[in-house]
Amino acid sequence: MSRQDILGAWHDHLALGLRRSPHTVRAYHKAAERLLTRLEIESFDKVANLSSGKLRTHLASRRADGLSNASAARELSALKSFIGFARAQAGHEITDAPRLRGPRLKKGLPRPVSPDDAIGLAETVEALAADGWVGARDRAVLLLLYGAGMRISEALSLPGSVYPLGETLTVTGKGNKQRIVPLVPLIREAVDAYVRQSPWPVMPTEPLFRGIKGGPLSQGVVQKATARARKALGLPDTATPHALRHSFATHLLGAGADLRSLQELLGHASLGSTQIYTKVDAASLLETYRSAHPREQDD
User: Which of 18, 88, 194, 287 sees the fewest Cβ atoms within 10 Å?
Assistant: First the structure.
C-alpha cells in the first residue's frame, strides 16, 4: 500500500464516514500527510505500531518549525485519531492511540480565549463528536457564540424560522430585548453544514438546533462537548461556551470597537455591564507589557 492509498482512505473516512467539515478534513489530512512523510511510513501496520516516543519526536520537530502550543495540541488530537483509524485498518484489537499529553497552554487571563483557540475549540468539538451531524451542530453553536457574541441560551432558543441565515440575525435576549447582530460567512456556512447533515428537518416552529432524539438541544450537551475539546487542546477550565462570548467582546474592543456599539451587539441593558471589558482589555495589555518590557523582566 502506498502513502497516497493511506491518505486517500483517511480522507474518505473523515469526509464520507464521519462527515466532517471540509476544513476539518483538510487539517486532519495534512497532519497525517506530514507524519507519513517525515517518518517515511507507507503502511497502516507501521502507523498502528507507532510508539509514543516517535510521535513525541515528530511533534517536537513540528514545534521546532514554529508551531504554537494551541496548534500543536490540535495536531496531536488529529494524529491520535489517525493512529486509531490505522489500528482499526490493520486489524488491531486495541484502537486507542499512544498515550501522549498535549502541551499545556499558559492560562493568562481566565475569561477570554485567543482567536486561534476559539476557532480551535469549535473545530475540535466537531472532530471529537461521535456522529458527523452532531459535530457540525456543536461547531455551529460555538461559532455563533464567538462570531456573533450570543449567549448560549440565545443560540439554542433560535427557531427554525430564522433559517436560512442572512447577513444579520435578530436575537431575543434577556427581558425579551431584541438586537440585530451581523453574521460573517463562516457562521452561515457552519449552520448550513449542520442543516445539510441533520436527520431532523428544519421546521419554523421547532428549535433550529436539535438533540439526538429531535428535541431541543440542551446547554449541558454543548458544555460537555466543549469540556472534551478543551481537554484535548490543553486549554484551562475557564474555556467554556460563555467564555467565547467574552472573547467576542474583548477582541472587538481590542480592535477598536467603541463601548456603545459593543453594548448593542451584546444586548446589555446598561453601559456599565459593557465597561467590564475595558478592564479585561487593560489587564491583557498590562500582562503583555510586563512580559515584554525589559525593565519589568529585570525586576
Answer: 287
Residue 96 scores a pLDDT above 80: no
Cell numbers 490505522 correspond to what residue?
86
* Residue 8: predicted pLDDT: 92
Task: Please give the single-letter amino acid code of residue 236.
Answer: P
**Residues designated as active site:** 151, 174, 242, 245, 268, 277
**Is the pTM value of this prediction over 0.70?**
no
Residues 6+ apart with CB under 8 A from 69: 103, 104, 105, 106, 234
Structure-block grid coordinates of residue 56: 513525541
Give the class (CATH, top level) of 115-248: mainly alpha
- 180 membership: H or E segment, kind and range: strand 178-182
Write the pLDDT tens digit of every residue in 272-291: 555 555 555 544 544 444 44
| Domain segments of the chain as ranges | 3-89, 115-248
Residue 227: what residue type?
A
- Is residue 77 a contact partner of residue 203, using CB atoms and an 8 Å limit? no
d(CA 207, CA 15): 27
Instruction: State how far the Cα of 162 lies from the Cα of 229, in Å rounded to an integer.
Output: 28
